[in-house]
Amino acid sequence: MKRQLLIFLVVAAFGGANYAQRAVPKFSQYPSKVEKTRVKAINFKKNPDARTMRTRLTAAMSGGVNFAGHYILTGWGCGTGCTNAAIIEARTGDVIWPDQFANIDARYGEGYSDVQLEFKNNSRLLVIHGRPGSRSENVKDRGAGDYYYEWKNNRLYMLKFVAVPTQ
């Protein structure tokens, strides 16, 4: 009887650990109230780097708020399997350039991710599929996978990383 109990406890412990690794943050866990704010203009004086992407940023404004309640997230290609992105604060027109958005690598397991950025207008959760940008925290050692971030105080905070299984 003791042996059966011991086997049960070992299996339950490993099963629980395996489940905890697979449990990922959900958009509903990071709610944000969506505002009907529209950017009147980008503040180029405060954001001189935004001038280099004037066309992309201006086009993104027409779509309205699409991230974390009052932000506009937009991205553009920078070569094969590469994406750059920025976030526009809809209330002020300020452009935010998170390090994770500089040259996002779309390599995902044995191929490429079709969607590098996953986000919603009513959530502060952002998922990067592949590998975050080259200027972000020490992600080179982690490799490709799903990176879960919370948007808070105009910064991305890493919540979880789930590696892509390789074959």
Verbal overview:
The protein is 17% helix and 29% strand. With 167 residues, the protein is an alpha+beta fold. The strands form three sheets. Strands 1, 2, 3 and 4 form a four-stranded antiparallel sheet that branches. The chain has a four-stranded antiparallel sheet with strand order 7-8-9-10, with no helix packed on it. Strands 5-6 form a two-stranded antiparallel sheet. The longest helix has 21 residues, at 2-22.
Helix content: 10-25%
Number of helices: 2
- Mean of pLDDT: 85
Number of domains: 1
Tell me the structural class.
alpha+beta
Order of helices and strands: HHEEEEEEEEEE
Strand content: 25-35%
Oligomer: single chain
Largest sheet composition: 4 strands, antiparallel
State the end-to-end distance: 40 Å
Low-confidence stretches are: 15-20
What would you report as the Rg, rounded to the nearest angstrom? Answer: 19 Å
DSSP E strands, number: 10
Q: Tell me, briefly, the overall form.
A: globular
Keywords:
167 residues, 2 helices, 10 strands, alpha+beta, single chain, four-stranded antiparallel β-sheet
Briefly summarize what is shown.
This protein is 17% helix and 29% strand. It has 167 residues and is α+β, with helices and mostly antiparallel strands.
